[in-house]
Structures are given as structure tokens and as C-alpha cells.
Automatic annotation (TrEMBL):
Domain Aspartate/ornithine carbamoyltransferase carbamoyl-P binding: start-end pairs: 3-146
Alphabetic keyword roster: Pyrimidine biosynthesis, Transferase
PANTHER family in the cross-refs: ASPARTATE CARBAMOYLTRANSFERASE, ORNITHINE CARBAMOYLTRANSFERASE, MITOCHONDRIAL
Assembly notes: Heterododecamer (2C3:3R2) of six catalytic PyrB chains organized as two trimers (C3), and six regulatory PyrI chains organized as three dimers (R2).
Enzyme class: transferase
UniProt protein name: Aspartate carbamoyltransferase
Entry-linked InterPro entries: Asp/Orn_carbamoyltranf_P-bd (IPR006132), Asp/Orn_carbamoylTrfase (IPR006130), Asp/Orn_carbamoylTrfase_sf (IPR036901), Asp_carbamoyltransf (IPR002082), Asp_carbamoyltransf_Asp/Orn-bd (IPR006131)
Length: 310
């Protein structure tokens, strides 16, 4: 893969290979030996804790040198475009860029331009607006696979702010292709008929007791516009209507697991004292994020024959 921007580019075989490789790294497997210095830059135009630091950790574990880049101190602030920023990175010898950006599919134009101008810099999407979040999706798949050892027939619910969630989009696509049965729940306002092809919508209290895995989504206040039709809730109302509280937790299947991409609004999507409960895989997801990102970066290095990798 010369660029890693959307789960839509992945065959099932590629997903399986990436998950296997991530598990190998997690089990202490040897990292590939790069025969040349390899450089990357992490360009985050939206805030991040997990994705940014775990890409950095993955890069360090792979012996790749990352160049610091802070958008607010960069020439982007003077109006320089994303393409010209990438053009600069290519010129100074960066091999690949990890980018998070608020614009959906920002990478499409960028990849077309880099091809047209014969730039030689790889692109890894660390989240685009409400579009895709491939690294989160793969770490979610790894966490589910680690638990159950298969996907076919597993019932997985995606609950909450689905319309605004790139995690939901990537996950509904990958889960259905891997054979899982996807269910949706949460405020109807944040559900759209465009998701019907991936699964069925139902009320939280009807759906949750049937699920093997539950993916709670963060209420993304920063993406909510000033739409006067928008349904508004207090944190307490959201928690009561849709949140994972103690009563709902008590009704889950014995082996069910609960996931959340983070950051968690504790006491809103998830009762504060259940975030680290036995069924929670939140910590495991964050651990797995490092290994999945190592596998993704390695795939791009191989796709570009960087560091002597084929
Ligand atoms: N899950 C996720 O993308 O978290 P961050 O925004 O902290 O990177």
C-alpha cells in the first residue's frame, strides 16, 4: 500500500494480514530491519491524544525518525496549503506523513496532486472529518478478534453520534465485510438511512442485551452545528436515554465486551465507574493501537520499498 487512507482500499486478506502482523508485534515479534534512515512527520490539524502518541510510539518502535510538526507554529498559519506543506516535506526528505484533518476526504486531492507532480511521499490518514479513521477501525477489529477469534456472525452495536463519527463509518464497512452483524442505536437524529445497508437500527434497551461487542461513540460537540432542528440533551439526559449505565451493564451477555474510541465523556456515553469494568476493552484498544499502527506503517514502507523493505 503506497498510501493508507481508507478501509475501503483494504481486501479482507489485507485486513487479516495486518491484524496478524499487529498481533505478532504485540507478542514481541521482531521489527523489520530498515537498511536506510527513514523519516516521517505527524501532521495533526485536529486535536488528538491516542492516535498522535500511538503513531509516534509505533514510529519509534520501528526505528523511524519523526520530525516535529505543530500546525499552529507552521506556515499553514500564513495560508500555506496542505499540498504545499506536503511538497515541502517531500523536498526535505520525509518519506511519509501521517495526517489528521477536519476536511472529509482531504487525501483524495492530495494523492492526485502528489501523483501529478511526481512527489515521493506516502500518506497515512489519521482521521478525516467525519469520513474515515482506518487506524482506529483496525485496532477495534484487533480487539474484537483477540476476544472472540472470529468475526462471522458476531453481533456488534455502534451506539451514539453515528453521523459525525469517522470511527462508525470505517467500522460499519469493515465489520460487515468481515461477516459481523452490525446494529445501530442512539439518538435517531444522529442516524441516517444511508447506514441501513450496513445494519439495523434499534432501541438501546432492546439491542444491547443481544450484543457480543458494543462500540460506544463520543458525543462530538465540536462537530455539531447551529442547526435549530438538532436534538439537544444535557449530559444527564443522554446518559439516561442512551448511555451505558449499571442497569444496562447488568443485562449484557456474559462474554460481551464494551469499546470506545476515546476520549470518553465519562458519565455521558459510559458511567464513570464502568469505564474500567471487567467487560471494558478501552485500555486494550489503546494498547492495540500501537501495534496496528506499526503494521500499517510497515505496509506503507513495503508499498514504497522504503528502508530496503519489499
Ligand atoms: N480515538 C481517537 O482518535 O482518539 P484521539 O482523538 O485522542 O486521537
Amino acid at each position: 500500500l503506497p498510501n493508507f487512507v481508507t478501509v475501503e482500499d483494504l481486501s479482507i486478506k489485507m485486513v487479516e494480514t495486518l491484524l496478524k502482523r499487529a498481533q505478532y508485534f504485540k507478542n514481541g515479534g521482531q521489527v523489520p530491519c530498515l537498511d536506510k534512515p527513514t523519516y516521517c512527520v505527524n501532521m495533526f490539524f485536529e486535536n488528538s491524544t491516542r492516535t498522535h502518541t500511538s503513531f509516534e510510539m509505533a514510529e519509534r518502535k520501528l526505528n523511524i525518525t519523526e520530525l516535529p510538526f505543530n500546525p499552529s507554529q507552521s506556515s499553514v498559519k500564513k495560508g500555506e496549503t496542505l499540498y504545499d506543506t506536503l511538497f515541502t516535506m517531500d523536498a526535505i526528505g520525509v518519506d511519509f506523513a501521517v495526517i489528521r484533518h477536519p476536511e472529509n476526504e482531504y487525501y483524495k486531492k492530495l494523492i492526485d496532486l502528489t501523483k501529478e507532480q511526481h512527489l515521493d511521499i506516502g500518506l497515512i490518514n489519521a482521521g478525516d472529518g467525519s469520513g474515515q479513521h482506518p487506524s482506529q477501525s483496525l485496532l477495534d477489529m484487533m480487539t474484537i478478534y483477540e476476544q472472540f477469534g472470529y468475526f462471522k456472525g458476531l453481533k456488534v452495536a455502534i451506539v451514539g453520534d453515528i453521523t459525525n463519527s469517522r470511527v462508525a463509518k470505517s467500522n460499519m464497512q469493515l465489520l460487515t465485510r468481515l461477516g459481523a452483524k452490525v446494529y445501530f442505536s442512539g439518538p435517531k437524529y444522529w442516524y441516517s438511512s444511508e447506514f441501513d445497508e450496513y445494519g439495523q437500527y434499534g432501541a438501546v434497551d432492546e439491542i444491547l442485551p443481544e450484543m457480543d461487542a458494543i462500540i460506544l461513540l463520543r458525543v462530538q460537540h465540536e462537530r455539531h452545528g447551529e442547526d435549530s432542528n438538532e436534538e439537544t440533551f444535557s449530559a444527564a439526559e443522554y446518559h439516561e436515554k442512551y448511555g451505558l449505565n449499571h442497569v444496562r451493564y447488568a443485562h449484557l451477555k456474559k462474554n460481551a465486551i464494551i469499546m470506545h474510541p476515546g476520549p470518553v465523556n465519562r458519565g455521558v456515553e459510559w458511567a464513570d465507574d464502568l469505564v474500567e469494568a471487567p467487560k471494558s476493552r478501552f485500555y486494550t484498544q489503546m494498547q492495540n493501537g500501537v501495534f496496528v499502527r506499526m503494521a500499517m506503517i510497515e505496509a506503507v514502507l513495503r508499498g514504497r520499498k522504503l528502508g530496503g523493505l519489499e
